[in-house]
Amino acid sequence: MRTLTEKDIESGTTLPPLRVDLSPTLVISTALATMDFTPVHHDVERARAQGSKDIFLNILTTMGLVERYVTDWAGPEALIRGINVRLGVPAYAGDAIVFSGTVVSREGAEVTVEVRGTVSLGDHATGTVRFCLPG
Amino acid sequence: MYSLSGRTAVAGIGATEFSKASGRTELQLAAEAVFAALDDAGLSPSEVDGLVTYTQDSNQEISVAREVGIGDLSFFSRVHYGGGAACGTVMHAAMAVATGAASTVVCYRAFNERSGRRFGQPDAGLGGEPSSQGMEMSWHVPYGLMTPAAWVAMFAQRYMHTYGASSEDFGRVAVAMRRHAATNPAAWFHGRPITLEQHQASKWIVEPLHLLDCCQESDGAVALVVTSAERARDLRRSPAIVSAAAQGSGAGQMMMTSFYRDDMSGLPEMGVVGRGLWEMSGLAPKDMQAAIIYDHFTPFVLSQLEELGFCGRGEAKDFIANGGIEIDGHLPVNPHGGQLGEAYIHGMNGIAEAVRQIRGTSVNQVGTVHNVLVTAGTGVPTSGLILSQD
Amino acid sequence: MTTTAESSLHELLTALGERQIAVGEVRGVAATDPVNLPMIHHWTDAMGDANPVYTDEDFARGSVHGEIVAPPAMIQVWTMPGLARAKGAASPMDDVLGALDENGFTGVVATNCEQTHHRYLRLGETLVPATRMTGMSGPKTTALGVGYFVTWVVTWYSGDEPVAEMMFRVLKFRPREKKSEPEARAPFPLRPAVNKDTAFFWDGVREGELRIQKCGDCGELRHPPGPVCPSCRSVNRTHIVAAGTGEVYSFVVHHNPPVPGIETPFAVAVIELPEGVRIVGNVVGCPLEKVGIGMQLRVTYREMDDELVLPMWVPRES
């Protein structure tokens, strides 16, 4: 389990895509693991009553998945400095989210990656993750 | 290289009356104009083997052929892009005759544009069509930019900004056209000239265009007979030789909404037509004794004079202010009164006037006309002609 | 937003927002539990995050951290109230969000979440959150309905040391009427045709983005869009989101004849964008005589009916 170095990364480098199937189990277990007990994240009936078509991913999980997407690629010792996410369409249970990313800048050890998480309805999350390479 | 120049001629012209309510179908108007043109040429319907019209015309070639008694047709075609088709119909006819695809071709345009479907009225369906033109319109129609006046006004505003032209400069075109129409009994505005003050006081249609910057809406039909120059010499009328015919479309061209190319103060498609006409005819602007300049809206008369080389860029306002387009001017433009004064028959009535000027039979004859240039609809892919004395 | 009642409501909400911004940072209730391995483990399992610095003591000891650290994105988890929902200290957001609810802006959707992490957290640290409101803007017409954007920042302290910050923005909106209700709006009559080549643009408008087609190969920007790049023949299409500003290149004021669905007179402009393309749109929100070539604009979005959102342009200073 290697952490990337400055040699491995340059502006324009693309990250391998990551697909995460949004099973009801995933939506609910992540909501609970983030201590978010809002019914729309675990109770289908209540979610539908509010006009949603199903339970959907909570924001704390979106942030967690975006972070995971980048560190899965950059390696365990990449030091996360910032995660900026613009939220789009909901990520419903039963859908899948596909992350893609591109390095938009690397200045010394500091790297900025543009990340996009897309579901069948469109962009669920778009934004940037900043991290530093160790050493 | 094989050239179309001089091989064909317009041998007959015909028209209905120009009105606001013809009281008859568009097919009847078409048939009447075709009969009139054939009678003018001294030909019978059975001698016609080709028909050309606009894609926008509602009368099929075969319907017109049935009404008029034309038998076998060996050539029929249609030209697209609204009024930009006008001179294109003669070009297609001339090409057919010159290549032997047909011997005698009639071009026609017939509509009840005032009492029937009016082009100037907003049509909410324009943007909804799943065609490439519908897609173009979809960038404009939702914002209410959906009438020809509005599309032209967008260019006019930029033209005014670029060259310092004013609404009065456009108004002088309208005043000249109405002055010409005033002495043309066939014109709707016969006997009704206007002043620049009236132009300025007329209501806004789409700023910067006043009502009197816009051509009228008309019911009527015009037909033209095209045959070989050789044959035309044996017919009743002196031929109007087709010295040049050209179509033109520019880079980034759209239907009336070419707002996305570098410059919005010219009409590159008319530049294409102009270069084609001068090259094919071997003539130059100074060789023209008159011009029929498509005048659905006044501002594009200025741009056309510039694109065709009658004056420099931005100089048309001075050319016009100095009386340049009057009947006794440097370049008499639209002696019949144009579409602002005579009638809006989608440019076909202008071609008929050009033929009369060559024959020397116009009510507003400008003297001896050896060569006359004619243009078609602007803001769209367009066309042009140079007709000459034999 | 034209009636007197609406404008006095706007003043009231704006004043309340300004007051709460002036209050500054308000400390909240400390985390129930310190940063701990079981909660981290639970979180990494659910997220599918296998990074060993969070859970593998041996690996962590040999890493840059020298010990187990918490995932940065977990920052907010530590101070979530949990199911018991003990009523904590008041937040400066309570009054503002409450006032918006009371005035019918009952819908809520998060639009932005931006975290800054100053350092990684170690096991045993106890965090205290502090919240300050930083902004409120509106009323704005969005695809969801008319609403206000409200922004706040939470800073987490370990002792006196700020360890992380999070900017959070929500849209509080008046939910649109359901289509089945009798008040459902008549469809706007001037609809664009939309196909595979242009859907991205109209999807973007619904999400409050002005999208410009960008060739996926040569990078050329193009508007109006089309299926094939005229520069390099590529059909690999992407798009960028325009900055949303522009300048009037030309314009008209339409008076006659009447146009369905739009009250005359109205202004339409060809707008040059800083990205280098032009687009056509209405100029709204200013007297028509103020519209002129060179005028600086910014985009906004207007809901025309239950389905159609159009980009509109307003003077940039407003």
From TrEMBL, chain A:
Domain MaoC-like residue range list: 22-119
**Gene3D superfamilies associated with the record:** Hotdog Thioesterase
Task: Tell me which InterPro entries the record gives.
Answer: HotDog_dom_sf (IPR029069), MaoC-like_dom (IPR002539)
> Cross-referenced Pfam families, in alphabetical order?
MaoC_dehydratas (PF01575)
Query: Can you tell me which family this protein belongs to?
Result: Belongs to the enoyl-CoA hydratase/isomerase family.
Give the protein name, as stated in the record.
MaoC/PaaZ C-terminal domain-containing protein
Recorded source organism is Sphaerisporangium corydalis
What lineage is on file? Bacteria, Bacillati, Actinomycetota, Actinomycetes, Streptosporangiales
From TrEMBL, chain B:
InterPro entries attached here? Thiolase, Thiolase-like, Thiolase_C_2, Thiolase_N
Could you tell me the superkingdom of the organism this chain comes from? Answer: Bacteria
Q: Which Gene3D superfamilies match?
A: 3.40.47.10
NCBIfam families found in the cross-reference section: PRK07855.1
Q: Name one Pfam family in it.
A: Thiolase_C_1
The upper taxonomy is: Bacteria, Bacillati, Actinomycetota, Actinomycetes, Streptosporangiales
Query: Can you give the residue ranges of the Thiolase N-terminal domain?
Result: 22-229
Residues in Thiolase C-terminal domain copies: 263-380
Q: What is this protein called?
A: Lipid-transfer protein
What is the originating organism of this protein? Answer: Sphaerisporangium corydalis
UniProtKB/TrEMBL annotation, chain C:
Q: Gene3D superfamilies from the entry? A: 6.10.30.10, Hotdog Thioesterase
Q: Which residue range or ranges hold the ChsH2 rubredoxin-like zinc ribbon domain?
A: 202-234
Residues of the ChsH2 C-terminal OB-fold domain: 242-301
InterPro entries per the UniProt record, alphabetical: ChsH2_C, ChsH2_Znr, FAS1-like_DH_region, HotDog_dom_sf, NA-bd_OB-fold, Thioester_dehydratase-like
Residue ranges annotated for the FAS1-like dehydratase domain, each copy included = 31-166
A single Pfam family it belongs to is zf-ChsH2
| The name this protein goes by in its record | OB-fold domain-containing protein
Q: Which organism is it from?
A: Sphaerisporangium corydalis
